Amino acid sequence: MLDLNFFKIPKIIIALDFNNKKSAMELVNLLDPNIYYLKIGKEIFTILGCQFIKELHKIGFKIFLDLKFHDIPNTVFNATKAAADLGVWMLSVHASGGKKMLIAAKKALQSFQTAPLLIAVTALTSLKEKDLKEIGIQISLTDYIVKLSKLSNDCGLDGIVCPGQESKKIKFLFGNTCKIITPGIRISQDLLYDQNNVITPKEAKKFQIDYIVIGRSITMSKNPIKKLDAIIESMQ
Ligand code: C5P
């Protein structure tokens, strides 16, 4: 079995961004749960719900439930608890929900013997500095990401989601207390789609990113396994 730890390369989370179960399962059936993690996002969760997560657990996959909670502390507390009850391995909230919301999410996991990793989204990888200005944020994208990472770390979260370019700085500032999860992964010839801050898998390894999230490069590929093999090889 391929041991990604041996090569010290980022672990791979596949974003199951599909609008139907058949397409999702076609990909899932090709993947080894000992190597790949699966990310359930808003689209497929809205269509297939908790039952689908239970089915994936039965096959042996660890699930990152990426619903990016962002609400008042009480609502996020209850939603986080409900997500943890599902037995997911990782779940996400938006760091911009603020300190009280982040602490509420963390508190919701206290009663679990094996709690999911709680991670906070700093800035979406689709955002540019211009987009931040439009919503009234006048600091640079990097400063915004560092600020939200510090807040998440101070609130005891396990890690953050951030673009690859900023990950080096976050690792330097917070070391291994803060896991880094990075979407926006592309290899040559891949289309950017709506992503702006992308890096290659090789760069992800260089930046010591813990987990990379790969969506359309794999979900839209005619030969996902060949592509995944090439991605892993490029990181060795
Ligand atoms: O298709 P692509 O590889 O761009 O997919 C990226 C995935 O990562 C999507 O599922 C998206 O929801 C998620 N994501 C992101 N940027 C973040 C957090 C999550 O693109 N900051």
TrEMBL record:
Homodimer. One of its GO terms (cellular component) is cytosol. The lineage of its organism: Bacteria, Pseudomonadati, Pseudomonadota, Gammaproteobacteria, Enterobacterales. It is an enzyme of class 4 (lyase). It holds the Pfam family OMPdecase. HAMAP family: OMPdecase_type1_B. NCBIfam families: PRK00230.1, pyrF. This is Orotidine 5'-phosphate decarboxylase. Residues 11-231 form the Orotidine 5'-phosphate decarboxylase domain. Substrate binds at residues 17, 39, 66-75, 125, 186, 195, 215-216. Its EC number is 4.1.1.23. Catalyzes the decarboxylation of orotidine 5'-monophosphate (OMP) to uridine 5'-monophosphate (UMP). CDD domains: OMP_decarboxylase_like. PANTHER family: OROTIDINE 5'-PHOSPHATE DECARBOXYLASE (PTHR32119:SF2). PROSITE patterns: OMPDECASE. Belongs to the OMP decarboxylase family. Type 1 subfamily. Keywords: Decarboxylase, Lyase, Pyrimidine biosynthesis. InterPro entries: Aldolase_TIM, OMPdecase, OMPdecase_AS, OMPdecase_bac, OMPdeCOase_dom, RibuloseP-bd_barrel. GO terms for biological process: 'de novo' pyrimidine nucleobase biosynthetic process; 'de novo' UMP biosynthetic process. Pathway: Pyrimidine metabolism; UMP biosynthesis via de novo pathway; UMP from orotate: step 2/2. Signal peptide: none annotated. It catalyses: orotidine 5'-phosphate + H(+) = UMP + CO2. GO terms for molecular function: orotidine-5'-phosphate decarboxylase activity. The active site is at residues 66, 68, 71. It comes from the Bacteria.
